[in-house]
């Protein structure tokens, strides 16, 4: 378990192992802005924590945290349409990180896929739900999960009513949508 704190313009983590809190250690491995927006992450089957955070300029950074409390690989994810971060998931071979991207007046989910988990190279699958028009609605950050061997991205839209939208894929190219 990793607990993240954003204090004094820095990001620190504390691990919880065998019913004992570890010593705090710094997660911010390189110079970024001092104010952060959102922090999210997941832990994979090899117990690597995959942490994503955005700064006030909407620059998204990935940072791996190893079991030894050491920092693993780090990357800046360049996404010109970036609007907000979602909740990632890992299947042990890759990390799937949904984000919200702005396409004109609409905000729809896109997906970053990083592989291998030890030192991921990132590929952006942009606008995975291109036919959905939700310009009159607001969207809650998308969440990813693996169900029956398929990646499922849940997007929630709200306005005058709440609408849930599921995007499912086993290859990141062919998507099945349902509302």
Order of secondary-structure elements: EEEEEEEEEEEEEEEEE
From the spread of the alpha carbons, the general shape counts as: globular
What's the rounded overall pLDDT mean? 77
Query: How many DSSP E strands?
Result: 17
Unreliable residue runs: none
Q: Helical stretch count? A: 0
Helix content: under 10%
Oligomer: single chain
Main sheet characteristics: 5 strands, antiparallel
CA-CA gap between termini? 34 Å
Structural class comes to mainly beta
**Percent range for β-strand residues:** over 45%
Q: Rg, please?
A: 17 Å
Structure description:
With about 180 residues, the chain is mainly beta. The chain is about 0% helix and about 60% strand. The protein has no helices and 17 strands. The strands form four sheets. Strands 9, 10, 11, 12 and 13 form a five-stranded antiparallel beta sheet that branches. Strands 1, 2, 3 and 4 form a four-stranded antiparallel beta sheet that branches. A hairpin with a 5-residue loop joins β7 and β8. About 25% of the residues are buried. The model has no long low-confidence stretch (mean pLDDT about 75).
């Amino acid at each position: 378990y990793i607990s993240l704190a954003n204090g004094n313009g820095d990001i620190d983590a504390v691990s919880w192992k065998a019913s004992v809190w570890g010593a705090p250690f710094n997660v911010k491995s390189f110079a970024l802005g001092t104010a952060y927006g959102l922090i999210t992450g997941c832990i994979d089957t090899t117990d690597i924590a995959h942490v994503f955070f955005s700064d006030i300029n909407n620059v998204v950074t990935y940072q791996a945290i190893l079991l030894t409390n050491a920092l693993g690989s780090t990357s800046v994810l360049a996404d010109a349409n970036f609007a907000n971060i979602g909740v990632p998931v890992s299947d042990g071979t890759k990390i799937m990180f949904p984000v919200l991207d702005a396409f004109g007046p609409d905000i729809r989910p896109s997906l970053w896929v990083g592989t291998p988990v030890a030192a991921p190279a990132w590929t952006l699958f942009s606008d995975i739900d291109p036919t959905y028009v939700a310009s009159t609605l607001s969207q809650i950050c998308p969440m990813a999960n693996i169900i029956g061997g398929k990646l499922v991205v849940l997007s929630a839209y709200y306005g005058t009513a709440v609408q849930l939208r599921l995007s499912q894929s086993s290859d990141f190219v062919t998507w099945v949508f349902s509302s």
